[in-house]
Amino acid sequence: MESATSVTMPDIDERGLSERDVAERQADGRGNAMKTSSSRSIMDIIRANVFTLFNGIILGAMVLVLITGSWKDAVFGFVIIVNTGIGIVTELKSKRTLDKLSILVESEYLVHRDGADIQVPHDGIVLDDLLWIRSGEQVPADGTIVQTWGLELDESMLTGESRTVRKKAGSEVYSGSTAVSGMALVKVTAVGEHSYAAKITAEAKVFKKTTSDLNKGINTILKVMTFVVVPLCVLLIWSQMKAVGGWSQAFATGQWRQAVISAVAGVVGMIPEGLVLLTSLNFAVAAMRLARKNTLVQELESVETLARVDCLNLDKTGTITDGGIAFNELRMLGGGENKQDTRQALFDLSNEEQPNGTGQAVLEGLGRQGVTAGRVLARVPFSSARKWSAIVSDSGVWYMGAPEVIISALGGGHEDVLRMVNENANEGNRVLLIARHAGQAPEDFEENPRLDSSARPVALVLCSERIRSDAESTLAWFREQGVRCRIISGDNPVTVGAIARKVKLTGDREPVYMDARELPEDIDELAEVLDNVDVLGRVLPNQKKAVVQALHKNDHVVAMTGDGVNDALALKEADLGIAMGNAAPATKAIAQVVLVDSKFSHLPDVVARGRQVMANMERVASLFLVKTVYSALISLGVVLTQIPFPYLPRHITYLGALTIGIPAFILALAPNTRRYIPGFLKRVVLFALPGGIAVALSVLLSTWLLPGVMHWDLANAADLTQLRALNAIILFVLGILVLARVAQPLTGWRGLMVLAFAVAGAVGMVIPFVRNFFALIVPRGTTMVATLIVLAVSIVIFFVCVGTARVLSVRRQARKAAKG
């Protein structure tokens, strides 16, 4: 930023606001200060993670057990703290990272007040201020140009159009745009939250929770369980009171406590609490792994959404291109001029005191070819008004600028040159023309520049937006994965289409491009049009949002990338918003994923991580749901037959950890590249039903038949404890079989994992502390024989149920194939 003293400012007539005027405007809120939040507040994050349906159910069950005084049976409640803590810590970490990204460099701006130019901070600007906008500065507030000295603005952050716009007196300028060249005096017309950029992002500031198919499925299970749990809990307590001699007897003897604990054992078993915990943990681990690759995940669920994406809308500038300009070629027109002289002239024409973006690209490109500055006798700098620049050298007068302007000054006979210019422009190039006059330049050439009509076209200078080196390979990866990519830009559709062709957006097929001004407004009609379009140009912010809505009409899962304020509405509307690290703060605030170093090539890693989470969580969800099924069926059997509950909550804690919880964590983090397949909940339920039915049937048969065979009196605490410990063994063995089924194929580390947990469960039963804490026993004598017989019967029941389910599944698929 240049200081006021380093630049000679033009003389102007206006005096600007007085100190009193400024004070009045600051006092009544007409200043440029704006309260902005880059992301959700800490309270919002805590509230979203604490007040969940799952936490409510588990907390209620834990309180009931604690009332009885049996804290050992309430250890399952700690999952609330762990699950909630993981969600809060991970989202707070993302918030801190995002807040750092969103801090803008504090700049001083030059305003004209009381007839003098003074520097004020961004928030010090007020309504009606006379504000200087100089080259390199970002426009801090909306305004109308009073006087201009060749001001050109880059408005791509607002409009998506990457070409600079020349402004005239009376033109509007908007906050968020950047001055590329020249300067202007602007009267401020809107400040703070009333500015254009603030208005366009007002809708986007509303937080939208990411839709997670995985969490939706889990929440569906929880909702169903809620309707089942509440009445079943009441019935379980009633049946357990009856089992201990009735309500009066229960309260008189204190056995009501055992009745409540037994009822909670059924309730807790029905809730897949470990699945909720593991889902949060798996999302968090994925987010941390992505963070190492400079990819910030703001919402944990968005990791899973990546696995389901089948449409990816890409913003051209900042995603496919890096916003810079690249010098591609100096194409001679065959007039006999020496190419080396022309290359030298091009370098010297570009080598101005403050070259624009095109000039910098030419200097960089020719510099790599070994060209250095030559002898320049006179220079006419580039002017937006003239549209050309010129130098005088030993080899003549050289001109460079807009082809149509130079050719019109040369007279007729150059139609073939214009045709070449148009052909190259249609291929996405920015085309400049070099012309040469072999004679002498006028003595007043610098003071009174003019283009000599006797000059002749020499060469075309071809430049283009600089394409990211990783764009083509990244797009190829998405094509292979079945993800349809579209480029949506505010630029000319022909230019964008040419860039799409260069990066092989559609592979070997020619990309179809279209001007967004021709798009239908009706969403249904738009959805039909989009099926056949790969590139959209001249797209307005609201149209980007409409494009996402139209794709949703056809049930697509849409991801959207962007970096400008103009992308904010579309990012919010998409299933997954992906912002670049150099994006506008408002854009990063509403995106679920931020590519911190703005590298498009990180997206395949992000999608692969999402697929790993989704595929693995489907596997482990099946494991957890088996427990839900058998707990519900056992509870129903207990209510109907009014028997004591066949195991304790602490049994479920121990067995669940060894056969479900810890193995599930290992399986969830295993490599898995399977593509997302719709129907997560249906597949999980169909997998869990046969195993759950087998376990429930085995435990209930054991509880109904063993007391008679072994002459156990279930009213006797010792006999009941023995029966419950035996049922815990049945649960453990069948749990290992379920784990083996889920972990298939049992080759390599998977087989060793199942064996290790089987051994760990058996060893734990002989360790006194573990055995006493979890109320386990080691069977001996006749109890050992009974246990072996019951286990054999249970294993047969398990394989019969699973085998039957497999036969039914094959028949169902055969019928479906026959209908197809």
From TrEMBL:
Its main location: membrane. The keyword Lipoprotein does not apply. Residues 108-203 form the P-type ATPase A domain. The keyword Endoplasmic reticulum does not apply. It is found in: Cell membrane. GO terms for cellular component: plasma membrane. It is a multi-pass membrane protein. GO terms for molecular function: ATP binding; ATP hydrolysis activity. InterPro entries: ATPase_P-typ_cyto_dom_N, ATPase_P-typ_P_site, ATPase_P-typ_TM_dom_sf, ATPase_P-typ_transduc_dom_A_sf, ATPase_P-type_domA, HAD-like_sf, HAD_sf, P_typ_ATPase. The chain crosses the membrane at residues 45-68, 74-92, 218-239, 259-285, 620-640, 652-672, 684-705, 725-743, 755-778, 784-808. It holds the Pfam family Hydrolase. This is E1-E2 ATPase. It comes from Bifidobacterium erythrocebi. The lineage of its organism: Bacteria, Bacillati, Actinomycetota, Actinomycetes, Bifidobacteriales.
